[in-house]
Every structure is written in structure tokens, then in C-alpha cells.
Amino acid sequence: ILSAWQMFNDFGADGGPAAKELAPKLDLTKAHLSSRLGVALPNIEVKQVVWAIVALKGLGGLLFVIGNIFGAYLLAFYLVVVTPILYDFYNYGPKDRQYSLLLTECLQSIALLGALLFFIGMKNSTTSSKRNLKKRTPKPKAA
User: Fold this and answer.
1) Is the CB of residue 41 less than 8 Å from the CB of residue 48?
2) pLDDT at residue 111 above 60?
3) What span, in angstroms and rounded, lies between the C-alpha atoms of 117 and 115?
């Protein structure tokens, strides 16, 4: 939530520092995807991507804090989409300084995704067990 608030406060006419960091990585990802898919992808405004990130992190974080499963889904979606773009350690060699930094941050994001999936699984299992308890009917006693 604090990260989303910081991005919101730093968002200026140009999108702030988040847009400056995200723009080259987004262009690289877009070029890679269009070469793999063989089609030209439409232009993506970096400011809109930053707004989407702020919305996903902010709303997802608030809902997650109050225990809503939809917040966990929003945060998981954010991590699945943004992690490979932001932490592009695969573009560096193992001897580069950036490689170890980006790999560490990517692994932290994957760990957070694992924790979110665990939360989702636990929420789903408690919800389904409550439903099963309500559906059970007591057996009539044999006389």
C-alpha cells in the first residue's frame, strides 16, 4: 500500500520515476514479444501502465489487508505480469552486477507470489469446509 502511495505521489506529468524506469524495459519486452509472435504490438503509454500498477497495488493491498481474497488475486496478477518485465535479469550475464541484484528481487517477488497463492488456497479451503459443514445433515438414530 505504501509503495502504491509513493508511486501515486511521485506521478507527475511524465509519469514520475517509475515511468522512467519502466519505459526501456517495456520497450524491450514489447520488441521481444512482437519478434516471437510475428505481429506488431500496439503502442503502449507508459503512464497508463504506471496507473494500472498503482491501481493494482493500492486496491489489491487494501483488500488483502482486510482479508478479502479478491485483493490477493489482484496482487498475484500484478506480480505475474510485472515481475518478468521489471526484473529482467535474463538480459544480463552472471558476472554483471545488475544480474545478481535483479535476480534477488525477482526471487523475492516469486516468494511473495507463493505466499499469496498459499493465502488464496487457505481462504478457499476454509470457505469450502464451511460450506461442507452446512450441507451435512445429521443421520437419524436407529431405534
Assistant:
1) no
2) yes
3) 5
